Structure formats: structure tokens, C-alpha cells
Amino acid sequence: MTTVTSPLAGRAIGLAAVPDPVFSGAMVGPGTAVDPVLEPCVAVAPVDGIVVSLHPHAFVVVDVEGHGVLTHLGIDTVQLNGEGFEVLINKGDTVRRGDAIVRWDPNVAVAAGKSPICPVVALEATAYALAAVSDGDTEVKTGDALFTWT
Predict the structure, then answer these.
(1) Which of these is catalytic: 55, 57, 67, 72?
(2) Which residue, 44, 106, 101, 100, is CA-closest to 74?
(3) Is 72 tagged catalytic?
(4) 10-residue stretch averages of pLDDT, the chain, 150 residues long
(5) Which residue segment(s) compose the domain that 127 sits in?
(6) CA-CA distances (angstroms) from residue 149 to 5, 30, 31, 39, 73?
(7) Number of domains in the chain
(8) CATH number at residue 52
(9) What is the CA angle 76-82-88, rounded to 5?
(10) Where is the PTS EIIA type-1 domain positioned along the sequence (predicted)?
(11) CA distance 118 to 23
């Protein structure tokens, strides 16, 4: 079983509230989302593992059980071309839960008309494999449990 923790502080809102049909429809996978506190922050690893994909706006960490967890910092933030983001590690790095991955200012996304909501998705999982710990209008701190994956 893998516990997936919040990569940043904010409010856990559930994927259905994400203003993007790919995420809200769980097409990428089940999970939850965090509406972040609107201040500069550092997004951290939600699980122990290897960073297999790394972009300024999104990263995937795969744990020892092969569970890939996608953290997407904002919606349509790829269009910002890295503005407001600073990548702090390298693809292929081994990380521990809570290790800093990307420094981000969600206010840059908001100023550009983008949603700051951050989906945290269990890639290639089925909804029945997840148990929500914090889903639906729950304040979370960085590192608080979001869901478990069995």
C-alpha cells in the first residue's frame, strides 16, 4: 500500500472540481486535487521513488511498487513556458516523500488567466484501488495524506 501525500498546502477538492475534462473525468487516472494557497511555495514529492518525468509544470514519481504519481501544478500552465516555476532536481533522481521538486508561484498562473488547481493523480490505477484520506473541501498542509493506493 502506498500513501500519497499532498505536494503543497491548500484545500483538497477532489478531481471532479478540476476545471479540465481530462482530469475531472479521471481520464489520466483517479486521485484528488489541491487548490493551493496563493503564495510562492515548493512542490514536494508525494511518495518515495524515482522522478521519471519532470517539467516545470508537472512531474511523475514512481515508487518501489511501480505506482506512478503525477503532480500537475495548475491547469494549462504548460502554456507559461516555465514562467513562475524553478525546477530544483533532475529527471532520474531518487527522492523521498517531502523532498523539494519545483519552486512555484501560483500567482503567476492566476495572473495569466490559468487555474492554480493541482491534480495529484494515480497513473494507471483503477478507482477501486484508491481510498481517499482527504478529498472534498479539506484543508491540507504539505505532506498531509491525500489517498492510499493498494
Answers:
(1) 72
(2) 106
(3) yes
(4) 94 93 94 96 98 98 96 97 97 98 98 97 84 72 92
(5) 2-140
(6) 11, 10, 9, 30, 21
(7) 1
(8) 2.70.70.10
(9) 120
(10) 20-124
(11) 10
